[in-house]
Amino acid sequence: GGSFAQFTDLEAQQCFNEVNAADPQFFMLSGDTVRMKADVFNPGTADVDLYTVMWTVNGPGGGQIFSNEVAGANIASGETQTLQADQTFTVTTEGEYLARCIVAADSDASALNDTTWLRMFVGALPMWYRYDDNGDPEGSVSFGAGDETAVSFTPTEWPARVESLRVNVSGAINTSLSVY
Fold first, then answer.
1. Considering the entire predicted model, what is its pTM?
2. Could you give the CA distance from residue 137 to residue 133 in angstroms, rounded to a whole number?
3. At the N or C end, where does the chain have fewer CB atoms within 10 A?
4. 52-71 pLDDT, tens digit each
């Protein structure tokens, strides 16, 4: 046996959205109302009494179109909490939107796991989509008639699991979906 020093560390595990007070979406329509959310995990050995989560969203022109900060409280070691922005925004311009979520706590031991990102699109489907595990994108998908597409990634740790999978298709389509 032995003892270990207590340390504080919060991790921004996932940045996601709620569109029109319903399910999360990567692809939206102009006029949709978006609320940002985040899963925050405490991998540290110390419970955290107070922390903050801040979201910023940049629109297709690159400028910031949304910013919101909320307080979180009482997250025990090993626990995950989901927080949501207390404000919403409406997307109006077609193109790519990039959301950033940052979690902050006093005496946080590592800034490397404090930020996570979410790419969202308004209007026509993009020519690619990227998987993001808080680092650089590992895979891509090409959309086109007759294309075989795939997303591959290297998880940051094993075992890994897929918590959700959403496929957006339109028109008459015949396809299969496999997860390996």
1. 0.70
2. 7
3. N
4. 999 999 999 999 999 999 99
